[in-house]
Design a protein that fits this description.
Layout lengths: L3 E3 L2 E5 L5 H8 L15 H9 L11 E9 L4 E10 L6 E8 L8 H16 L4 E6 L4 H9 L3 E12 L2 E11 H14 L6
Helix pairs in contact: 1-2
Bound molecules: coenzyme A (COA).
Length: 193
C-alpha cells in the first residue's frame, strides 16, 4: 500500500509501526455511536494489523486501512478502510471516521475520493459499498459527495454495540466511477493555443 495525498489530508497505510496510533484514534470517544468498533487491547490490535495483507493488488482480499493525518502541526485526525471479503472478491466495503474536532473540514470526503480511485485503479473490484445507519446524515453527505448511490435498506444489517440495526446500503460501481472520471477529464478547460 502507498501513501495517498488528498488535498490537505494524507492517507498513511496502517502497518505494525503505526497500529498503536490508530488504536488510540479508535478508542476516542464518540466514534462508536454509528458503527461497531471492536474493543481489543493495543497488543492484540497490533497483532491483527501484522496479519493483514500488505499490498492492494488485483484479487487481494482482507482489510486495507489508512490513518488520516492533517493539520498544522500534522496529527492523526481519523482513519479510512477498505475491506474485501474473500467470498465476494470483486466487492469492497469502505468505512471511515474522523475525530470530532477534525470534522467539518472536508477531510473525510477527500480521503474517500482518494481511496475510491486507489481501489478501482489498483484492484479488480467491480463495486464499492458502504453501509450507514439512516440517521447518520454526516456520513450520508460524504457518500453523496463522492458519487455513491443509495441502494436499499438492509434490515438488521449491522450489529452496533451488540444490537442488530437497520442500515442503508450505498454502492458505487466501477462503471459509474469511470463515467465520472471521464466526465471530469473532458470538462477540464483546454489550453489556449
Ligand atoms: C462521518 C464523518 C466522517 C463525516 O465527517 P465530516 O467532517 O462531516 O465530513 P467531511 O470531512 O467530508 O467534511 C464535510 C464538511 O466539511 C465542510 N468543509 C469545510 N471546509 C471544507 C473544505 N475546504 N473542503 C470541503 N469541505 C469543507 C463541508 O461543507 C461539510 O460540511 P457540511 O456537511 O456541514 O456541509 C464524521 O461525522 C464522523 O467521523 N462521524 C462518526 C463516525 C462515523 O459515523 N463514521 C461513519 C460510519 S458509516
Amino acid at each position: 500500500m502507498r501513501v495517498l495525498q488528498a488535498g490537505r489530508v494524507a492517507l498513511i497505510p496502517v502497518d505494525a509501526r503505526n497500529a498503536r496510533e490508530l488504536w488510540e484514534v479508535l478508542n476516542a470517544p464518540d466514534l462508536r455511536k454509528y458503527q461497531d468498533i471492536p474493543r481489543v487491547r493495543a497488543e492484540e490490535f497490533e497483532r491483527q494489523v501484522r496479519a493483514r495483507p500488505k499490498a492492494l493488488r488485483p484479487a487481494a482480499t482482507g482489510r486495507f486501512e489508512w490513518l488520516l493525518r492533517a493539520g498544522e502541526p500534522e496529527r492523526a485526525v481519523g482513519w479510512i478502510s477498505l475491506r474485501v471479503n474473500e467470498r465476494t472478491p470483486r466487492v469492497g466495503e469502505v468505512g471511515y471516521s474522523l475525530l470530532p474536532e477534525s470534522r467539518g473540514r472536508g477531510y473525510a470526503s477527500a480521503a474517500l475520493g482518494a481511496v475510491i480511485d486507489e481501489a478501482f485503479a489498483a484492484g479488480e473490484l467491480d463495486e464499492l459499498q458502504a453501509c450507514i445507519v439512516p440517521e447518520n446524515v454526516a456520513s450520508r453527505a460524504v457518500l453523496d459527495r463522492t458519487g455513491f448511490r443509495e441502494e436499499r435498506l438492509l434490515r438488521g444489517g449491522a450489529v452496533i454495540r451488540g444490537r442488530h440495526v437497520d442500515v442503508l446500503l450505498f454502492t458505487l460501481t466501477r462503471a459509474s466511477w469511470m463515467r465520472a472520471r471521464n466526465g471530469a477529464v473532458s470538462a477540464k478547460p483546454t489550453r489556449p493555443v
